[in-house]
Amino acid sequence: MGRHAPYDDPGTPDVRSPWRYLWWLVLAQRRRVLAGAWWGSLWMCGLVLPPYLISRAIEDGLRGGDRTALVWWCAALTVVVALLALIGVARHRTMTLVRTDAALRTAQLVVEHVTRLGGVVRRKLSAGDLTYLQNGDTTRIAHALTSTGPGVGAVVAYAVTAVLLVRISPVVAVVVLLGVPVLAVVTTPVLRRLHVVEAGYRQSQGELSSRAGDIVAGLKVLSGIGGKPAFEERFRAKSRDVLRDGYRVSVWLSWVQVLWGLPTLFLGVVTWIVARMAVSGAITVAEMVAVYLYVGTLIVPVSFFVEGADAIPRALVSARRVVDLLSLRPEERSGDGEPLEVKPGALTVLVSSDAAAAREAVERLPGQVVVADNDDYLFPGPVREAVSVGEHDDASVRRAIWAAAAGDVVEAMPDGLDSHLESQGRNVSGGQRQRLRLVRALLSDPEVLVLVEPTSALDAVTEAAVAERVKEARRGRTTVVVSSSPLWAGQADEALCLEGTR
């Protein structure tokens, strides 16, 4: 298993449940997590020392009239505060690495698995769902791992503070020990409701993103058939639904913000109790100051408890989506018909009267091939960058342009290869888009290249040139073309009928 992202081997995740997946992320970097728990515990427990040192300075130095003791206790306080700052830096750095590792490891697992699945992902997940999974879900999962560092430290510091308080006043210790569970009971229902409405909001966002992508992709068709007003109204209606869901989330978020003030309220209650005890003589002034500072220090671990109670359920929801995706498997062959065998290093043409069935069959191919079809996305930017996969010199790019018979496409653009290509090539025709996609596929130069109807939008003369040139450019490498065109069949080393084949 690699130590730094991108990992040579990110590991085999445990996808039996969201909890098991989160635990696997912890075990994948166990040393770093243990270091985070150590620094977190040391830092949290160290926060208890300043109140103790201040109480001793008051008791021995001020009330006792011992200036030397006062100086020594103040010096010790200065040293402890400096050490706490250094420990805090180490804790934060370690936990940042823990969160980053979890996010990048999850992202790499998702990308690699999606690559292996191929077309299965298109049928199971929308583009919006996949985008949010890569961005929002990985962040939520990573944030939950904070509980392995400061979260553990908060538990340790809470126990240490309780022991110190028992020595001063058992009554105050009981109040503190019972106060945190009460806070948890109060916050849990609100956080649970927030997670429910957030889940609905995320689903609505994903549906709206997918609908927007569909509208943009088919904008010219919608304009031609006069369907823009209908789709505009549907989009507006869905946008209003998302807006209402967003308002609903905001209402519960405002209650969560109120909950963040509960630790301060808790501190106020304890302060009132110890102040009355000091007035009655049950505890000394120094002990009262110590209790106040101890409980003030407890705000930090209590805040981490509240944060963990919020972050972990969110992470479990996100981990469920990751686990569901990682549990997807490539579709198995039905067993009907003869298996398709393709000669290595040859140009094979698959002939089928059903283009959809041919595309479905191609999507079942293993992941170690490049499959190029007419739905592949063309990114906006200079033509050179839109068709280049990695670093290619002009000579390589122009050879691919020649093979795809796309020279006239580039020449017709104002700045040649430096001309701007809009998203999905909306500023070029369908046939020109098809050839630019073919240029990109050829530049990827894979051992096995599968082209699905690569010339369906071209005239016969251009199609014949493309078929001849692609065969020449791909000589010695395996190329599979799904097409019913006789021009491709005429160039094929082998032509196969897809009917009855799985």
From TrEMBL:
GO terms for molecular function: ABC-type oligopeptide transporter activity; ATP binding; ATP hydrolysis activity. It holds the Pfam family ABC_tran. The chain crosses the membrane at residues 33-54, 70-90, 141-165, 171-191, 251-275, 282-306. PROSITE patterns: ABC_TM1F, ABC_TRANSPORTER_1. GO terms for cellular component: plasma membrane. Residues 48-314 form the ABC transmembrane type-1 domain. Gene3D superfamilies: ABC transporter type 1, transmembrane domain, P-loop containing nucleotide triphosphate hydrolases. It is found in: Cell membrane. Keywords: Membrane, Transmembrane, Transmembrane helix. InterPro entries: ABC1_TM_dom, ABC1_TM_sf, ABC_transporter-like_ATP-bd, ABC_transporter-like_CS, P-loop_NTPase, Type_1_exporter. This is ABC-type multidrug transport system, ATPase and permease component.
